[in-house]
Amino acid sequence: MKNITLSANEASILAGNKLLKNTYLLLSMTLLFSAVTAGAAMALDLPHPGFMITLIGYFGLLFLTTKFRNSAWGLVFVFALTGFMGMTLGPILNFYVKAFSNGHELILMALGGTGAIFLGLSGYALTSKKDFSFMGGFLMVGVMVAFLAGIGAMVFAIPALSLAVSAMFVLLMSGIILWQTSDMIHGGETNYIMATINLYVSIFNLFTSLLQILGVLGGDD
Q1: Cα–Cα distance between 5 and 51 in angstroms, integer?
Q2: Residue 198 sits in which domain range?
C-alpha cells in the first residue's frame, strides 16, 4: 500500500512538473508572438479597433480556445487570441510614445514592473507551495466589479475612477497570478492551454494597468 501511495504521489508530481513546463513554454511563445504583432501594429500605425470590436474579438477567440483546449486547434486559437491582443496593444503603445516625451521610458518601466511582479509572485507560489485556491471566488467578483467600474469611468469620463480601476486591476491580476500558479501546483488546473491563457491575460492587464498609472503619475507631456 505504501509503495502504491508513493507511486501515485510521484506520478502526480511528474504530471505537475510537465504542466508547469508546458505552460511556461507556451506562455513565453505567446508573449513573444504578441510582442511581434504589437510591434507590427506600431510600425503600421494602425488605429485601435475600438472597445466593442476588442471585446468581441477577445471573447470570441477565448470561447474557441476553451472549446478546443484539448486538441491541436486549441494551440491555433491561443496564438490567434494573443496575436489579436498584441494588435490591440500596438496603438496604445503608439499613443504613449506620441503623447509623452518620456513615452518609451514609461513603456519600459511598465514592462519591467510587470516582469518583476510576475516572476516574484510565480516564484513565491512555486517555492512556498501554498494553496491559494481560496482566492478564486473573490478574484472573479473583483474582476467583474473592476470591469464594470472601468466601463463607467470610460462612459462618464472620470479620470480619478479610471486611475482607481487601474490600481484595482494591478492588485487583482497579481492575485490571479498567485492563484493560477497555485492551481497548477495543486492539481486544480490540468490543462496547460487554459493555464497559459489565464496567465497571459493577467500579464497583459497588469502591463496596461501599470502603464496607465505611470502615464498619469509620471508622464511628461
Answers
A1: 52
A2: 2-218
Cell 510587470 belongs to residue? 114
Number of independent structural domains in the chain: 1
Cell of 33: 508572438
Task: Please tell me the distance from the alpha carbon of residue 88 to that of residue 209, in angstroms, as a whole number.
Answer: 14
When pLDDT is averaged across residues 168-177 and rounded to a whole number, the result is 94
The Cα–Cα gap between 181 and 23 comes to 10
Q: What is the pLDDT of residue 10?
A: 58
- Cβ partners under 8 Å of residue 118, min gap 6: 177, 202, 203, 206
Q: What is the pLDDT of residue 75?
A: 96
Judge whether 211 and 96 are in contact, CB under 8 Å: yes
This prediction has a pTM of: 0.90
| pLDDT, average across residues 18-41 | 95
What are 112-136's pLDDT values in tens digits? Answer: 999 999 999 999 999 998 988 888 8
∠ CA 42-29-31, nearest 5°, is 40
34 exposed, middle or buried (CB, 10 Å; 0-12, 13-18, 19+)? Answer: buried
